[in-house]
Write a structure and sequence with these properties.
The chain has about 240 residues and is α+β, with helices and mostly antiparallel strands. The protein is about 30% helix and about 35% strand. Strands 8, 9, 10, 11, 12, 13 and 14 form a seven-stranded antiparallel beta sheet that branches. Strands 1-2-3-7-6 form a five-stranded antiparallel beta sheet. The structure holds adenosine-5'-diphosphate and uridine-5'-diphosphate (UDP).
């Protein structure tokens, strides 16, 4: 069923699907990278955890009538998705200040954003993913003004649902990054992954960082932290 390799990225491999030109297989790797690939390592089991966590999250969003490219999980490390042409934007939603916004704007970590802040970055490794305003995004991508607005609206809806989902697991959703892609019928759909690699999650009680910052800041054992996130999501979704 899995066809030839289409693309190999930092965290996943993307394969064609034989006889299904509008589908792809995403295969999650064990590699971890940070600071745009400047820090690198490999963690046995990470691909499985991100595949299973992303699958749970997309399944939850589907239940909440929020469609995405996700079709189904195929095995421990692979999932079947709808093929899209990815819009080269990283759409970041922030509920609490952490990471680049603290450095860029001198905002103290943990400051609360109410309402949440949406930021756009240009998905271009050679340029270190620079921040964009709407004018830049409209110039650099093929999205219309109405589509850009709808992307931002969808990102905020995803935020509402993910905040709930993670709260039920005792986790605070600090921020996260989404990607959107265009399907063959020209519509725009949520794509890529939603995992502790792409979200900041803090334990509600202890404030402990339970995401890729464990790797970025060398805070401990990444795999046991990601395993804990999966367990909490499984307990929470099985209890329903
Ligand atoms: P990167 O390219 O940033 O290193 P990954 O290693 O995660 O990232 O590679 C996965 C690639 O697959 C990304 O470029 C992502 O935009 C792309 N992708 C994710 N979902 C889809 C999809 N449904 N259709 C086409 N491409 C996708
Ligand atoms: N993020 C991501 N991929 C990127 C850049 C950021 O998934 O290429 C996520 C990151 O994990 C965090 C959020 O987007 O959850 C905001 O990241 P930020 O801009 O603070 O950058 P960072 O400090 O993480 O590099």
């Amino acid at each position: 069923m899995k066809g030839s390799l289409l693309y190999e990225g930092k965290a996943k491999r993307v394969y064609h699907v034989n006889d299904e030109p509008e589908q792809l297989v995403l295969s999650y790797k064990n590699d971890a990278t940070a600071f745009n690939g400047k820090k690198k390592d490999e963690f046995e089991g990470k691909g499985r955890l991100n595949n299973l966590i992303t699958s749970k999250v997309f399944e939850y969003l589907h239940q909440q009538q929020l469609p995405s490219h996700f079709i189904k999980s195929l095995n421990d490390t692979e999932q079947l998705v709808a093929k899209t042409t990815i819009i080269p934007l990283e759409v970041v939603v922030r509920n609490v200040a952490a990471g680049s916004i603290t450095r860029r704007l001198g905002i103290e970590e943990k400051s609360v954003f109410e309402p949440p802040i949406v930021e756009l970055f240009y998905k271009k490794d050679e340029l270190d993913d620079p921040i964009l305003n709407d004018y830049h995004a409209l110039y650099l991508t093929d999205v219309t003004e109405a589509e850009l607005q709808s992307i931002k609206d969808k990102a905020l809806k995803v935020n509402d649902h993910l905040k709930d989902l993670f709260k039920q697991s005792g986790l605070k959703l600090v921020d996260f990054k989404l990607e959107f892609g265009r399907l063959a019928d020209d519509s725009i759909v949520l794509a890529d992954e939603i995992s502790p690699d792409t979200c900041r999650l803090w334990d509600e009680e202890t404030g402990e960082k339970m995401d890729k910052d464990v790797f970025r800041e060398s805070l401990g054992d990444l795999i046991s932290v990601y395993e804990n996130i999966l367990q909490r999501l499984e307990e929470n979704t099985c209890a329903k």
